[in-house]
Amino acid sequence: MAYRETEKMRQRKAEARKRIVDCTYQCVAEGGFRSARVTRIAGLAGVATGTIYRHFESREDLFAEIFRLATQREVDKVAEALASDGSAAERLEQALRQFAERALKGPQMAWSLIAEPVDPKVEEERLAYRKAYANLFEKAIREGIDEGCVPDQDARQSSTCLVGAIAESLVGPLSPTQTSEADSATEDNNDPLVNSIIRFCMQGLTGTRR
Amino acid sequence: MAYRETEKMRQRKAEARKRIVDCTYQCVAEGGFRSARVTRIAGLAGVATGTIYRHFESREDLFAEIFRLATQREVDKVAEALASDGSAAERLEQALRQFAERALKGPQMAWSLIAEPVDPKVEEERLAYRKAYANLFEKAIREGIDEGCVPDQDARQSSTCLVGAIAESLVGPLSPTQTSEADSATEDNNDPLVNSIIRFCMQGLTGTRR
DNA sequence: ACAAAGAATGAATAGTGATTCACTGCTTAT
DNA sequence: ATAAGCAGTGAATCACTATTCATTCTTTGT
Q: B209: which chain A residues are within 8 Å (Cβ-Cβ)?
């Protein structure tokens, strides 16, 4: 034996992989999945195209990983909002706001995650991603029902409606053909779009006019 | 001059076009847009592939037309439900039910219209289609506000939420990988899935627990 | 210094199906 | 019957990139 995988090599490979991931992320954040070419990604990452395939089975797999990564950040933020103090209803409201506001702040990526037409393997990740949100919401709704601040209902079904209502409301504003620079700087709770969405959602959950 | 387009010819061409449209519709209803091959469509319609291109600019254009057609039927049904008797709230409920039940009855086509990844021109039609629903709902919500059976709100925003909530709720059940033969025969108002969706939506609109 | 084993390379290939277009065959008006 | 002109044909072409793989370069242990 002469060559043995050593720590140094492992690390170097990991770095290359990370560069590939980062550059893909960047490409997607700029122009979506559809326009992200393997060749360009390789170029940005400073590796040959073939090298991509030493780290990922296929372009689709690479994209699926990027999708998972981008998604995780978002889901974590929502989970965080749901883990804060306050009644379940208050926490749900915080979470919905988090979801919507973050999307509006990074519109291209948000659009890619929510609405861009993607290949089957990536679409699968999208279903998982939406389900992840739904699961978080479902749990919070259950807590709300136990606490008594949310009336009894089919928590799973309601959580799905929440995800749908937000996603649909965002598709228009996020659509790459229409995105302006306008909303980017919003920091406070006063975006009327976000507020209307939340009002509808919270009413749907609680059946209490607000 | 020797050849002149005559009524007979015009009609024959129209028939060929109709056959192409019908066969495309059938293909899509069976396996979605993605799997509908131009060659197969031509075969079914009894014309050469080239003939397709005498009637449509491109496959995408053909698909866009099929999408519009399929969509029109659905939108019309919802419009019909909204035009019936009763309070605005009652009519909205009828319309939501119509939407959901029809989708569950023709799951493959409904999935293609709601969630299948499609090319840009078709995606544009989808946006228009969703907007068409939203417009109908919006009008009804406005009427409800005037009638006093629906509290004052941003009708446009609420209508978008309605469309999103239904669509998202249907994506799972319609997904081709999961569709069973189960629900197909449901004729009455008792599908619990449909009822939960409607409950959430109507609560979201009216803020009244049901 | 050397050989063994990977890792990296990137030009060439391949797979896929939409689209074209030179040709054939009808239809029509005279 | 004839000629002009449009409709129909479908095998061949094209476009587009993801993917491959023979080759070159690095690393490692002796």
A: 151, 206-208
